[in-house]
Amino acid sequence: AQSVTQLGSHVSVSEGALVLLRCNYSSSVPPYLFWYVQYPNQGLQLLLKYTTGATLVKGINGFEAEFKKSETSFHLTKPSAHMSDAAEYFCAVRGDQKVTFGTGTKLQVIP
Amino acid sequence: GAVVSQHPSRVICKSGTSVKIECRSLDFQATTMFWYRQFPKQSLMLMATSNEGSKATYEQGVEKDKFLINHASLTLSTLTVTSAHPEDSSFYICSARLTGDNQPQHFGDGTRLSIL
User: How far apart, in Å, are the Cα atoms of B80 and each of A86, B69, B70?
Assistant: First the structure.
């Protein structure tokens, strides 16, 4: 069985502040891990993914995430939030063939 | 926690047949369900938004007559791929949420559709 937990359904940060969105997973096999972003009334856009190799993964729009096996985490970060980052973010894990999504975290950026 | 069940998880069928995919919210009433499609190595594309008791809202470029969506109850939405062809082969995933934009989306496990 596999699962994804996103801590915090809503996160607010000030413009220019650090963004940290948390994701913990469980998987019985070495996982592939993903972060998606969804802007209002749009589909899910892939931000970044971890498959194998380097545990620090860089994605689009200045986001990055670090795979920490010992902590079963894949937190998403961005050093400085921009107003355009306001969206909903989904973490996902792929074990064997199945992909499991978290319930999402809505990011609000305060000017 | 809220669970969304999607069935079948995998289907292989011949070109020209119709395939129905079910999306059920097991322990909550989902007034809104979403259907996504993922092409290989690409992001999930929103196909349509399904509201219980009303017609689905399709995204631009999605053929309504090709991808029939029915949301007949608060716990069930179906996607029927009619007269499927190899180019319809893809990964389809649904999600469901309670009323209100601030409610989280709960995703099904997805359906891998392969048309021969």
Answer: 34, 6, 8
Beta strands B90-97 and B32-38, pairing class: antiparallel
Which tokens hold the place of A97? 């063939």
Residues of A whose CB is below 8 A from B2: 103
The tens digit of pLDDT for each residue in A10-67 reads 999 999 999 999 999 998 888 899 999 988 777 778 899 998 889 999 999 999 999 9
Residue of B12, B25, B43 to mutate when probing chain A, most A C-beta within 10 A: B43
From CA B49, how far away is CA B114, in angstroms rounded? 23
d(CA A22, CA B107): 18
Cis peptide leading into residue B8 (ω within 30°):
yes
Instruction: List CB contacts (< 8 A) between A43 and chain B.
Output: 36, 43-46, 59
CA distances, B104 to each of A78, A93, B23 (Å): 23, 18, 16
